[in-house]
Predict the 3D structure of the following.
Amino acid sequence: MNLSNDTRDVLKNFSTVNQNLLVKSGNVINTMSAMKNIVAKATIPDTFDNEFAIYDLNEFLSALSLFKKPTLDFGERSVKLKEEGGGSSVNYFFSDPSVVTAPKTEITMPSVDVEFTFTQDTFNQIQKASAVLGVPDVVLTGTTGGDINLTVTDRKNDTSNDFAIKVGENASSDFTYYFKVENLKLLAGDYKVEVSSKGISHFTNVNKSIEYFIALEAA
């Protein structure tokens, strides 16, 4: 089989969440961070016939990059990567699934308290502000009837420089929720975001079938 560019983009993104990956048969793949505070799920254009586990996803992607047009021939213990039309090849062995971190159950989003749109432009600004100001936190705030804002700051520093951007208006209540910038490991695109006071958020890509559940930081 050949992997589509969309599938390879998802795999590259998932490698930032966790280097481990357990792929089950079908066209849905998911991953979970080692700290279990990020879970991602995507429906991809390609369908896998068998379950397999990869211990180092970045290494696997690097092996794929050895070929201009790689084809994949799956066996029980390994996959043969080779150039379309013949030539060079790599026999890449699978991992034992028992040593791979993977979601055990589906996550059900609890009652939603806040919703807003998180655009790629907003994401870029937040990442840039975090790097420029050297701060690690994102704070989502709102006041009843007022604006909904994201502020990049350092919660541990009362005199921290910060960057704020409006992401919504007409907040239904007063609220403050906390994220870590490093946990926003999103595939490029615009997202619908739902946040629950139960300590979890849900990012759903508006154009692609990929979603993330990201735990909130303690207040």
